[in-house]
Amino acid sequence: MKDKACIVGVGESAYTRDVELSKSVLAIQLEASMRAIEDAGLSPKQIDGILPSQYGPTTEELAANLGIEELRFATTVHMGGAAAVASLQHAAMAVSSGAAERVLLVSGWNGYSMQRARNILSTNVTVLPGGAIARDYYMPYGLTVPAQWYALIARRHMHEFGTTQEQLGAIALAMRKHASLNDKALMRDRALSLKDYLSAPVIADPYRMFDCCLETDGAAAVVVTSAERAKDRKHRPVYIMGAAAAHPYPADEFTNREDIFHTGLTDAAPKAFAIADVSPSDVDFAEIYDCFTFEVLQQIEETGFCERGEGGAFVEGGRIEIGGELPVNTHGGLLSEAHVLGMSHIVEAARQLRGNLGKRQVKGAEIGVVTGWGDFGDGSIAVLRR
Amino acid sequence: MASLPRPFPQPDRDTTSFWEAQNEHRLVFQKCSRCGHVRYVVGPLCPECHSFEHEWTESSGRGTIYSFTTVRHQTHPAFVPPYTVLLVEMEEGPRLIAQLRAPEGVEVKIGSPVHIEWEDHEKQSLPVFELDA
Predict the structure, then answer these.
(1) Which chain A residue's Cα is nearest to B66?
(2) pLDDT at position B2, please?
(3) Which of A139, A222, A338, B121 is the most exposed place for a label (fewest CB within 10 A)?
(4) Residue A91: C-alpha distances to residues A4, A37, A249, A250, A271 (Å)
(5) Where in chain B is the domain with CATH 2.40.50.840?
(6) Which CATH class is domain A5-113+214-385?
(7) Mean of the pLDDT values across residues A135-156?
(8) Does the beta carbon of B9 lie under 8 angstroms from any beta carbon of chain A?
């Protein structure tokens, strides 16, 4: 797989929480798709593979609207927040095997103006893979949303490793700081101090309000093609050096894992680095799926940027801010830019590696990592280079 | 959202015996007839030795708090905060989610011993945990 496929186009719809600007999910996904396809210097009819998200329009609807006459490859990855990066892996496999030549990945939803994202699972948790387990074993006890489920893992980490509330806060503050450098970020003008963070209402402890991602309307899309076809495009190609995805054991139930911190990323990360033939210390920045602050800390550990239990210290002192040792979520992430189900993390990684990202450019960025966390700990990771 | 009823388990062919035992105030786990592995959540196949045969073994109802969260922001109309939900490691090994029944303000700590009690609802009894005295 190494270096056989490239990201050549990226694009987004508007990111908004203004219901007056609300459009259909199909419309915003098409808007993002058109921008990514144009960014790649292609026409929609040249797309011959589509990887749509499990939430929203189907392959068929997207292909019909884009006027795609010859669709050769289509699949949907059911890994929740890990699906976007896992889809990138599938796209790389498709173009490197010849199954397709130009593949479109798209995600997006109206998590603000339609059903609020926080209520979706309370209404019907079986939209999740493994959702029947949550329905029978978690929901009857008042654990009805991911913030409450994952709080159990975060609390255990604090107990075992001494991770503090302030360390979780450092993650929220870093994402917010990065958002101030990004015109698209919905929280760009909302400065956040540690005092604000610590005095915000508790949602499900240890999670407070600013530990939780945003609910927004928006879509993002990415176009992948072979390294050969990626030459002579509008933008410098971004190479997929390695990618991997994994489900933890058991995949459908997070409370009975012998090691509760052993998630999909624990297995996927070493595979992706082995394919890429680089190590975590070679990475210049990381776009990490940030549904909640602790999930960032845990993924930093499981990716191998530090040892298990050292994540708390790692995120302190500006280390994950632009200018620090490992800038994380340079766009502001789900916590402070917008929640586009992980696709915006790939878009940002590609832009960082193209360069010229103005105030938020990571200087000398050569290699970046993007991760996904989904459902009950599914994981995905891609190692990218310029 | 406003009219959502309280969620309850939806027993199926694989899980009915488990939920019926709870209506008799018994917490039971599947024990593999071939290799003796105690498994939870309920499923038809032993993931260790792949036998479909199992017997039910009754839990002592005792365990220790493995993790917990106190919910302070309401996310479901049937659950009014604050309430504390525990992840309890049972003596037999499996970890179980259920609410804590305790006076408000009581200190909850990982590692504290707890025991099971039962809360009866119209169609389904559910476990709750109380801190050991």
Answers:
(1) A156
(2) 63
(3) B121
(4) 11, 15, 25, 26, 17
(5) 60-133
(6) alpha beta
(7) 96
(8) yes
Within 8 A of B72 by CB-CB distance, chain A residues are: 201-205
State whether A148 and B75 contact (CB < 8 Å): yes
Q: What is the mean pLDDT of residues A231-238?
A: 91
Residues whose CB is less than 8 angstroms from the CB of residue A132 and which lie 6 or more positions away in sequence, other chains included: A126, B10
Instruction: Identify the closest residue of chain B to A118 by CA–CA distance.
Output: B75
Tell me the CA distances in angstroms from B114 to A66, B98, B117, one per residue in order: 59, 11, 10
The radius of gyration of chain B from alpha carbons, rounded to an integer in Å, stands at 16
Q: Beta B95-100 vs B62-71: how paired, if at all?
A: unpaired
In this complex, do A140 and B9 lie within 8 Å of one another by their Cβ atoms?
yes
Determine the Cα–Cα distance for residues A334 and A336; give it in Å rounded to an integer: 6
Partner-chain residue, chosen from A132, A137, A205, that has the shortest CB–CB distance to B70: A205
CATH number of the structural domain B60-133: 2.40.50.840
Gap between the Cα atoms of A239 and A130, Å rounded: 34
User: In A, what residues contact B, Cβ < 8 A?
Assistant: 118-119, 122-123, 132-133, 135-145, 147-148, 151-153, 155-156, 159, 201-207, 250, 253, 255-256, 260
pLDDT at residue B1 is higher than 70: no
Q: What percent of chain A has pLDDT over 70?
A: 100
* Cis peptide bond N-terminal to A206, omega within 30: yes
The band of A312, judged by pLDDT with boundaries at 50, 70 and 90, is: very high
> What single-letter DSSP state applies at residue A254?
S
Residue A212: strand pairing partners: A292
